[in-house]
């Protein structure tokens, strides 16, 4: 009785505080635009806008989008583009909650129900128009490891699945040794690091394990890790942890493995060990099939590919956009920025940052789709 | 027990007390005369002293360590003019340096807005509780403040998210984060102001009433005036509490590398979020350096505010 009265009082006090703050908000918002000082005209390029563009999502594409943002902001001095690398799951949630203008995700929006909600339908509801998945960057996923004295390591899907499932626990396990003849493997225990946050990298990696080693990997695929090991936050977290732990192994985007100077395993798909390069990853992307319709360019990757010289663990990171924004101004901003991002000039720079360029035919389709955003 | 009774009568010559500060010889004499009880007391004294100093140094270790780490790793970026004038626009994680002006301004602006809302509410609540409040309402408010002071910052942030974003459909902004910080700051201000007001002697109030001064004038001109320096200290504690708070910012105020002076629209730069952003790329020397420098800047800001507050409190306090 008294408790409910007290909580009622608390509610009154809080609503009072909110009412006060609402007044404050009105007062101040009228004065702020004057102090903003960004009214100077945009520079030459027709695609520039002045104002903010907000995006959030996959940390796998952070280094790529940072590069694109630099290029865009250098051309457009009045434009502010922000990207929060909080993970694919968070990005899609914020996009559906209309908190960001577009989302970055390592996997296309789900079209089947999960936890009672269908991502693509929710996104379409938030947009008031169908949401499109636009593949923008392809990032090879490295199996990065840190074992003292081992500079070259070959794994196949089966052995990798057993390592990440905790069934193989030491580095000199006969299964690993069989793939690495002539390499002296130490008896160091294997320490698996996985992404503790919801991540498209996890989803793509588990999809690979499931597709290429269905017997050894019995878990479902998904953004949450279901195997064994120790969780670390975000791509940088697993990369840093692996770097600091002898015997450590993780799955991480090539760009992070390169930044942290981690050694990367070669993958034997059945036709010989394949080293991870932009080229070998590009071969797998080229075999991908388009599953979306029209300008929705969701791709399906063949993880179990046995093509010679193709590195099978790749992810395609998408920009998730509204086909027609409720606010036309926002649509123009998204379009302007993505035109820069998908341009050949920017795409060709991304190779240096550890990403693989989109195959030409996909790139052309993406550019067409970006032009159709309104 | 015996130590207390002894201390209460240090002047009593018949029981010489070795605890009397300068009485070295007297104490030793007493020790010789009285024998073991004093020796035991001396031993206790030494043990207590050692334990106290040991604990003091133990408590100092993390403080000095943190300061040393932050200063040694972050100080040299602060030496550049760019740090104080520029922002992080087009500075990617593998680029060195850049500025922190955007985050410094953002933090000050956000905390300023927080204080603007929280300080009046906090002080008026405390005045009500001490000067006016009686009975159930006062007890209920006091209880609510207690609960509020126990609310973790992440819960305050999620509450504001639920109200601001989910219910009203507004977007995340610096102001939304300031609202969450208000929830964290109010109880600190209320509690400290309350304590200060209670310290004001009742005689002062009675003297004012005796002169026919109305109650509200007494509160404004006598009670609040007397407690002024204490209230300022409380407000500063509150500000220090919320300035480095990160959870509400993570949820309510996405970071931007650009200057952003609009609290109500768009992403908002703050020092804790800048630290968080660079923490994500900790393995890169460039980002790590920037992270330490931003941490040091935040510490300096809190320190500066404290000093300013002390100065205001010193000049504003009632001269005896």
UniProtKB/TrEMBL annotation, chain A:
Residues of the signal peptide: 1-24
Organism: Humibacillus xanthopallidus
InterPro entries registered for this protein in UniProt: ABC_phos-bd_PstS, PBP_domain, Phosphate-bind_PstS
Keywords recorded for this protein, A-Z: Phosphate transport, Signal, Transport
Name of one Pfam family that matches: PBP_like_2
Coiled coil: none
Chain positions recorded as phosphate binding sites: 58-60, 88, 106, 199-201
Domain of life: Bacteria
Residue intervals of the PBP domain: 47-341
GO cellular component, as recorded: ATP-binding cassette (ABC) transporter complex
Example of a GO MF term: phosphate ion binding
Keyword Signal: yes
UniProt record similarity statement: Belongs to the PstS family.
GO biological process per UniProt: phosphate ion transmembrane transport
Protein name as annotated: Phosphate-binding protein
UniProtKB/TrEMBL annotation, chain B:
Pfam families: BPD_transp_1
Coiled coil: none
Region annotation Disordered: where it falls in the sequence: 1-36
Positions of transmembrane segments: 46-71, 110-130, 142-164, 170-190, 222-243, 291-315
Top-level division of the source organism's lineage: Bacteria
Subcellular locations according to the entry: Cell membrane
Topology of this chain in the membrane: Multi-pass membrane protein
GO cellular component, one term: plasma membrane
Function: Part of the binding-protein-dependent transport system for phosphate; probably responsible for the translocation of the substrate across the membrane.
Protein name (database record): Phosphate transport system permease protein PstA
Organism of this sequence: Humibacillus xanthopallidus
Upper classification of the organism: Bacteria, Bacillati, Actinomycetota, Actinomycetes, Micrococcales
């Amino acid at each position: 009785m008294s408790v409910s009265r007290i909580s009622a009082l608390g509610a009154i006090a809080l609503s009072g505080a909110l009412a006060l703050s609402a007044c404050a908000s009105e007062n101040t918002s009228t004065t702020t635009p004057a102090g903003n000082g960004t009214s100077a005209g945009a520079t030459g390029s027709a695609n520039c806008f002045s104002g903010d563009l907000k995006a959030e999502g996959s940390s796998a594409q952070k280094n790529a989008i940072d590069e694109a943002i630099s290029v865009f902001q250098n051309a457009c001095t009045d434009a502010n583009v922000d990207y929060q690398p909080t993970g694919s799951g968070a990005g899609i949630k914020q996009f559906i909650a209309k908190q960001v203008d577009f989302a970055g995700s390592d996997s296309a929006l789900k079209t089947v129900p999960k936890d009672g909600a269908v991502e693509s339908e929710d996104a379409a509801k938030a947009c008031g128009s169908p949401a499109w998945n636009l593949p923008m960057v392809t990032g090879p996923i490295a199996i990065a490891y840190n074992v003292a004295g081992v500079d070259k390591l070959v794994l196949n899907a089966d052995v990798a699945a057993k390592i990440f499932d905790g069934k193989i626990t030491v580095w000199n396990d006969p299964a690993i040794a069989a793939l690495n003849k002539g390499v002296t493997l130490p008896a160091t225990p294997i320490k698996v690091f996985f992404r503790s946050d919801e991540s498209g990298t996890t989803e793509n990696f588990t999809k690979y394990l499931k597709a290429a080693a269905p017997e050894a990997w019995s878990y479902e695929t998904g953004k949450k890790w279901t195997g064994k090991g120790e969780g670390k936050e975000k791509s940088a977290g697993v990369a840093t942890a692996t770097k600091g732990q002898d015997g450590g192994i993780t799955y991480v985007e090539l760009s992070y493995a390169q930044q942290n100077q981690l050694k990367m395993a070669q993958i034997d798909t059945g036709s010989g060990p394949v080293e991870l390069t932009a080229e070998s990853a590009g071969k797998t992307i080229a075999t991908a099939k388009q599953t979306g319709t029209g300008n929705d360019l969701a791709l399906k990757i063949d993880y179990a590919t046995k093509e010679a010289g193709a590195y099978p663990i790749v992810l395609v990171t998408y920009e998730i956009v509204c086909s027609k924004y409720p606010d036309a101004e926002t649509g123009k901003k998204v379009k302007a920025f993505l035109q820069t991002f998908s341009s050949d000039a920017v795409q060709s720079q991304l190779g240096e940052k550890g990403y693989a360029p989109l195959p030409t035919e996909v790139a052309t389709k993406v550019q067409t789709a970006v032009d159709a955003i309104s | 027990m015996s130590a207390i009774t002894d201390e209460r009568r240090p002047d009593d010559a018949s029981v010489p007390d070795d605890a009397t500060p300068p009485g070295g010889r007297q104490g030793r004499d007493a020790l010789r005369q009285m024998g073991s009880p004093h020796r035991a007391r001396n031993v206790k004294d030494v043990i207590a002293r050692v334990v106290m100093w040991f604990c003091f140094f133990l408590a100092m270790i993390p403080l000095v360590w943190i300061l040393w780490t932050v200063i040694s790793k972050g100080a040299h970026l602060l030496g550049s003019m760019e740090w104080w004038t520029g922002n992080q626009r087009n500075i990617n994680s593998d680029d060195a340096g850049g500025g922190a002006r955007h985050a410094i301004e953002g933090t000050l602006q956000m905390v300023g807005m927080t204080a603007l809302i929280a300080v009046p509410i906090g002080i008026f609540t405390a005045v009500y509780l001490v000067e006016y409040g009686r009975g159930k309402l006062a007890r209920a408010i006091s209880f609510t403040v207690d609960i509020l002071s126990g609310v973790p910052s992440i819960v305050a942030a999620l509450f504001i998210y639920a109200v601001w974003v989910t219910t009203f459909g507004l977007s995340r902004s610096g102001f939304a984060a300031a609202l969450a910080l208000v929830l964290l700051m109010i109880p600190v201000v209320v509690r400290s102001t309350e304590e200060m007001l209670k310290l004001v002697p009742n005689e002062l109030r009675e003297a004012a009433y005796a002169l026919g001064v109305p109650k509200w004038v007494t509160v404004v001109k006598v009670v609040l005036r007397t407690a002024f320096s204490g209230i300022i200290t409380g407000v500063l504690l509150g500000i220090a509490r919320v300035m480095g708070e990160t959870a509400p910012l993570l949820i309510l105020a996405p970071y931007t590398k650009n200057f952003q002076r609009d609290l109500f629209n768009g992403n908002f730069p703050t020092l804790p979020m800048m630290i968080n952003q660079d923490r994500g790329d900790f393995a890169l020397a460039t980002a790590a350096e920037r992270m330490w420098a931003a941490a040091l800047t935040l510490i300096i800001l809190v320190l500066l505010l404290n000093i300013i507050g002390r100065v205001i409190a010193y000049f504003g306090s009632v001269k005896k």
